[in-house]
Each structure stands twice: as structure tokens, then as C-alpha cells.
Amino acid sequence: MKRVHALLTTAAITGTVWGLTLVQPAVAESNTQSMTQDTRAHTVEAKAQKEEKKYYRQVIARTISLEEVQNLLDEFSQKVMDESTYAPATNEIIVVYETFNADFTAATITMGYADVRNLPPSEQIILPPAEQAVLLLTKGRYSTAQYTDAWHKIDFQKPVRAVVETHTLDEQGEPVSSQMSVYYQ
Fold first, then answer.
1. Whole-prediction pTM value?
2. Distance in angstroms (rounded) separating the CA atoms of residues 135 and 178
3. Which of 23, 74, 138, 165 has its CA 20 to 30 A from that of 148?
4. What is the pLDDT of residues 38-47, one digit of tens each?
């Protein structure tokens, strides 16, 4: 039950961030034409970490309005709790935002969890190559304001391929750390 609470907390944070993002001035008027040196310094290198190969099991995927993310997170939580097929082997939850519409109010959102087993392609979440990621939040604990700031760092004038949030939960299902990356085309 605590895992559901943790997922709902994550959903609330994500919903708040998207809500704040949607009330920003028009994307074309933003002055995010250049990335800061700090963001550039956090570009992920493919060979930076040598760790066990991770697969991400897809639990749910849907194209929805970003205002409906909370509902999708609730559905994800329910599926994970109800079906033993989705019993996570790890405590790492992943949320992938892809295929944004023109005004960034809707996207295809895929949710799942890390799994060390080699999964059939139909059950996997396929991430873009790691070397293309620009790290917005390094692994750690963050407030809602920090999530909002991370979303504001995204340069929406560039074609966004995906935004990936990774949340690590403890044994009780409480959030321990999160990480956020953006992938440009």
C-alpha cells in the first residue's frame, strides 16, 4: 500500500510540474534559446557508467493530455498492485514522455519499472541512446519547485524526442531519489 502512496506522491509532483509548465508564456516567446553551461556539463556519456544491463518493463502507455497524468499514474499503480505479472523485481519506476503535440499539452506517456531480466521487445520500454541524454536532475531528492525548474530548463524550441523521469523507491515504496533527463532529436 505504501508503494501506491509513493506513486501517488510522484504523480502529484509530476501533475504540479506539468500544470506549471502549461501556464508558462507561449513556447515561441520563451528565451530558452541556449542551454546553460551547467546543463551542457551534465550531458550523459554512454560509457560513463558500467552497470548491469537494465531493461524497463512497460506496464502502461497512452497518449493523453498532460493534465491527465495523475489519472494515468493512478491506473499504473492499480495495475502494479493487482497483477502479479507486474510485480517489480526492482524499486525503480520509469516515466517516459514522448511524441509531444505542437503546443506541448499532450504526449504519449509510458510507465514501467526496471527489470534485470531480458524481456521480449513487446514488453520493453525502449529508451533513446544514453549518449543523447541531457541530465536535468541528477539522482537525488527534489522538491516540487526543483522539478518545476527542471522542466523549465527544457529547450522546447529544439525538437524534444523524450523526457525521462526515473524514481527509486525504498522497501516501503517511499521515494528515495529521482532523476530527470531530456533527449533532443
1. 0.71
2. 12
3. 74
4. 444 444 433 3
Q: Which three cell numbers stand for residue 22?
A: 502549461
The parts of the chain modelled with pLDDT lower than 70 are 1-53, 83-89
Residue 20: how many CB atoms within 10 A of its CB? 16
Residue 180, pLDDT score: 96
118 beta partners: none
Q: Which three cell numbers stand for residue 40?
A: 551542457
What angle (nearest 5°) sits at the alpha carbon of residue 78, between those of residues 72 and 81? 140
- Is 157 within 8 Å of 26 (Cβ atoms)? no
Whole-angstrom distance, CA of residue 45 vs CA of residue 49: 8
**What are the grid coordinates assigned to 150, written together?**
527542471
**Angle value at C-alpha 99, between 93 and 105, nearest 5 degrees:** 90
| C-alpha dihedral, 87 to 69 to 173 to 182, nearest 10° | 90
Phi, psi dihedral angles at 83 (to 5 degrees): -110, 125
